[in-house]
Amino acid sequence: MKAPYFIETLARNGDVLHRHQVAGLPIRLGRGYDNDFILDDAHAAPAHAVIEGGADGRLLLRDLGTKNGVVYRGKRHGSIELTGDTVIRMGHTSLRVRGADFPVPPELVDRTMHGWEGALPGLAGMLLIGIVALLTVWLGDTRPFQLSRYLQALAYGVAAGLVWGGMWAFANRLFGRHARLGRHLFIFGCGLAALAVYKIVSSMAAYAWSLEWLVRYGMHVAIALMAGMVYFHLGTVRPQRRRYFASSCALLALLGSGLTLVGNLQASGRVADQLYMPLLLPPEMRASPDRSVDEFMAEAAAMKVRIDAERLKHVEEERAAGE
């Protein structure tokens, strides 16, 4: 490790808060003003530690008999050899020392999409959230119009968006230096809009062409959309780890779908979310040909035969168990 030396103060997430250059050894560290590096930490001693050169040219940090000592990987050490990646704690301050010859990785490709930041994406996201909230109430409203119901839904939607986006913005600030609240609100709004559009379009298509699987397995599409929304949130926090986040979110989506199938099987004996297609839309939307009464009665008769056979089998099993 070659001079000059750089003492870095680190945040809990590993980001560098402050970097101080020292020309040569020894380097005295402590709270006192006569040190080469001053620790603004009430839990650090006035003369806390000293960094000296070892016999082989490496750096050695030595505790100067303090109450709280020098902590490395959760254990207190009287002295410790320093490399460029050795993070030690003195009091409540985390530090590491690097020389001028410490290698740094190549620059990262900027994938943060700076154009999708600020007030404009945030306002667009809030607009989408408000539209979805009002549309949801309107589609399910069967009572006389009352403005208070729509205003209440709008307030709940905006509040949910602010809480959700605020949580991700806090994580972004903690792990990525910038909050990017506007982009997180936009992601949440787009996710809600995608869920609403799928629900409306799938319901209409299922009713029009008798595509029951669109509504009977719609929960899996909702899980996939939620996983995609979480992926974009995580990609905003740490753009350089998008591949890892993509695989993790895909795995979580598969796990969620699997748990949904198991839960449906335990609850109803079937893997579908619903036993039938519970949609009541105007008859004019029907595009598939109508079924005749004879076809319906034939299917009902075949269903009766299957149900009677299952009932008879169940009775025989109970009788055998009683004997």
Automatic annotation (TrEMBL):
Domain FHA, chain residue ranges per copy: 27-77
Keywords, ordered alphabetically: Membrane, Transmembrane, Transmembrane helix
Pfam families reported in the protein's UniProt record: FHA
SUPFAM superfamilies reported for this sequence: SMAD/FHA domain
Originating organism: Massilia agrisoli
Transmembrane segments: 118-138, 150-171, 183-201, 213-232, 244-265
Protein name per the record: FHA domain-containing protein
InterPro entries: FHA_dom, SMAD_FHA_dom_sf
Domain of life, source organism: Bacteria
